[in-house]
């Protein structure tokens, strides 16, 4: 077993509970952690035997392009997208952050983290 991580991904997207947030947009961050068997790829040096980082990024990019009201829902969609693209993955953990959330005061970011093990 091993871990693949894409950390510090940043997007400008149109998520948020309030309609105004979905109109003006905001900056978001995503950290993604994948648990899977990396031994075959480590031995063979063959990209087809592991999770392709570019395809993984495109899963996140796709979900970031479709508005969501809640960060929890967005994280759920990212996890499901990873499992759809890479059914052999054993575990997915994702953190989604909204920078400068509209809370009426200073807050650098609001963040949710979701984790799902393959059933």
Automatic annotation (TrEMBL):
Substrates-to-products reaction catalysed: 7,8-dihydroneopterin = 6-hydroxymethyl-7,8-dihydropterin + glycolaldehyde
A Gene Ontology biological process in which this protein takes part is: folic acid biosynthetic process
| One function term, GO molecular function aspect | dihydroneopterin aldolase activity
Q: In which pathway does it act?
A: Cofactor biosynthesis; tetrahydrofolate biosynthesis; 2-amino-4-hydroxy-6-hydroxymethyl-7,8-dihydropteridine diphosphate from 7,8-dihydroneopterin triphosphate: step 3/4
Q: What cellular component terms from Gene Ontology apply here?
A: cytoplasm
Q: Name one Pfam family in it.
A: FolB
* Lyase keyword on record: yes
What region holds the Dihydroneopterin aldolase/epimerase domain?
A: 4-116
| Listed InterPro entries | Dihydroneopterin_aldolase, FolB_dom, GTP-CH-I_C/QueF
UniProt entry keywords in alphabetical sequence: Folate biosynthesis, Lyase
Name the EC number(s). Answer: 4.1.2.25
Leader sequence segment: none
Q: Has the keyword Disulfide bond been applied to this entry? A: no
Source domain of life: Bacteria
Record's PANTHER family? DIHYDRONEOPTERIN ALDOLASE 1-RELATED (PTHR42844)
What's this protein's function? Catalyzes the conversion of 7,8-dihydroneopterin to 6-hydroxymethyl-7,8-dihydropterin.
Entry similarity comment: Belongs to the DHNA family.
**Protein name per UniProt:** 7,8-dihydroneopterin aldolase
Write down the species.
Rufibacter hautae
What is the primary gene name for this protein? folB
